[in-house]
Write a structure and sequence with these properties.
Layout lengths: L27 E4 L2 H10 L2 E5 L6 H14 L5 E9 L3 H9 L2 E7 L4 E4 L2 H11 L3 E7 L2 E4 L1 H15 L3 E5 L5 H11 L1 H18 L1
Parallel strand pairs: 1-2, 2-3, 3-7, 3-8
Antiparallel strand pairs: 4-5, 4-6
Length: 202
């Protein structure tokens, strides 16, 4: 609709999205499996792997391999749950309070949601037998320097072009602080401070 390319014989002919952006919007496909990565490669669009939905690193590695093989010039992004705090202990404590819920349908499909209420609502809407499994959230939690090091390793190992950070904290002030701690300015200051500490110790 943004490109005004709906066929004139289509039931939605004449409908347009407004306002029209000055630049064409980049297309993304969000998924959490190698199959989704292959689909994105076939379509020639950027792929976002939802690591916060599927924390299996082997699946991430396979998805990255499949996407790069099928679309070498494509953009591979990873959406990851991150919690930053002044201390490692506080960050891990905040992250430990978060849960995810997997809905296993009788047909074999699996869906991940963020609350028990959402899990049961989805199961009932599916109109088939289901089970709900509670799991700890797959969250990278730590000091800004720790989080930066983990993401840097991901970037090198899986050739990640960009990260989308998701901070699943209930309190707004804790979410805001996490993003502030992860800002480039603060991260650089934190890194310099760590270097000074190492020099002092040596």
């Amino acid at each position: 609709m943004i490109e005004d390319s709906v066929d004139e014989h289509h039931p939605l002919a004449g409908i347009r999205a407004t306002p029209i952006p000055p630049e064409k919007t980049e297309m993304f496909l969000l998924g959490a499996s190698p199959q989704s990565a292959q689909l994105a490669a076939d379509l020639g669009v950027a792929f976002v792997f939802g690591l916060f939905l599927n924390g299996d690193m082997k699946v991430l590695e396979e998805a990255a391999r499949v996407y790069r093989k099928g679309y070498p010039d494509g953009r591979f992004l990873v959406s990851v749950a991150v919690v930053a705090a002044p201390s490692q202990q506080e960050a891990e404590q905040l992250a430990g309070e978060q849960k995810i819920f997997k809905v296993h349908l009788q047909s074999g499909r699996t869906v991940t949601v963020s609350s028990l209420e959402q899990a049961h609502a989805f199961g009932k809407q599916a109109d088939e037998a289901y089970e709900v499994e509670e799991q700890a959230s797959n969250i990278i939690a730590g000091t800004p320097l720790y989080v930066k090091n983990v993401l840097t390793n991901f970037h090198k190992k899986y050739q990640v072009d960009e990260f989308i950070l998701h901070t699943p904290l209930q309190k707004a002030e804790e979410r805001l602080r996490s993003f502030q701690l992860l800002s480039p300015i603060h991260s650089n200051e934190d890194h310099k401070s760590a270097e000074r500490d190492e020099e002092y110790v040596s």
